């Protein structure tokens, strides 16, 4: 029987031949991973920005008719200050709104004071402790005079449903 000879690498030679390519491969993978991650992040940001722009545009298209009503209301209130007349006008402006859409108006004077009042298109009468001047739609409108403002979502006192309000102060 012939002696078979095997070529054995010494452990040092084995490590010296395997470690450098493994280290290079590891750094290449990390670099590739970092570049890929950066590309993915930029793509996600771009797609999210595009989605937000489209959504914002669609929301504004839906809200625009009501924003136009609000602008018309503002022009009317600057000319007419009598509560009874404003009640009739608000019903007319908001005649095509659904049952969950309220069109509010509140004076800067409390509704409990002689010169103050609160009206809406559905003749909703709030509870005795309800004060419009403390509501988010009222305070945001005053803080951002001259611009349409939007509240964060909140639970509506009338319907008990989640809602958001857009408002503008009347000067």
Describe what you observe in this structure:
With 171 residues, the chain is mainly α. 51% of the residues lie in helices and 8% in strands. The chain has helices at residues 11-79, 83-93, 136-143; strands at residues 104-106, 118-120, 149-150, 154-155, 162-163, 166-167. The strands form three sheets. Strands 1-2 form a two-stranded antiparallel sheet. A two-stranded antiparallel sheet has the order 3-6. It has a two-stranded antiparallel sheet with strand order 4-5. Helix 1 packs across helix 2. The longest helix has 69 residues, at 11-79. The protein is rod-shaped and about 120 Å long. It starts with 10 loop residues before the first helix and ends with a strand. The mean pLDDT is 85.
Tell me the fraction of residues in β-strands, as a range: 5-15%
Query: Which consecutive residue ranges, at least 5 long each, have pLDDT under 50?
Result: none
Estimate the global geometry from the Cα principal axes: rod-shaped
Distance between the termini: 111 Å
Strands of the biggest beta sheet: in what spatial order? 1-2
Tally of helical runs? 3
Number of DSSP strand runs: 6
What are the secondary-structure elements, in order, as H or E? HHEEHEEEE
In percent, how helical is the residue content? 40-55%
Radius of gyration: 33 Å
What does the average pLDDT come to? 85
Structural class: mainly alpha
User: Main β-sheet: number of strands, strand sense, barrel status?
Assistant: 2 strands, antiparallel
């Amino acid at each position: 029987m012939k002696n078979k000879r095997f070529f054995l690498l010494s452990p040092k030679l084995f490590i010296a031949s395997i470690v450098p390519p493994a280290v290079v491969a590891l750094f290449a993978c990390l670099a590739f991973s970092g570049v890929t991650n950066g590309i993915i992040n930029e793509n996600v940001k771009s797609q999210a920005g595009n989605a937000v722009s489209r959504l914002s545009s669609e929301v504004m298209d839906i809200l625009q008719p009501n924003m136009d009503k609000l602008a018309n209301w503002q022009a009317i209130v600057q000319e007419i200050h009598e509560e009874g007349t404003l009640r009739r006008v608000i019903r007319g402006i908001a005649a095509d709104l659904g049952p969950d859409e309220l069109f509010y108006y509140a004076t800067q004077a409390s509704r409990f004071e002689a010169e103050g009042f609160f009206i809406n298109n559905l003749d909703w009468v709030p509870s005795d402790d309800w004060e419009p001047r403390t509501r988010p739609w009222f305070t945001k409108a005053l803080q951002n005079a001259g611009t349409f403002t939007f509240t964060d979502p909140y639970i509506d006192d009338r319907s008990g449903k989640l809602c958001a309000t857009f408002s503008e102060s009347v000067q």
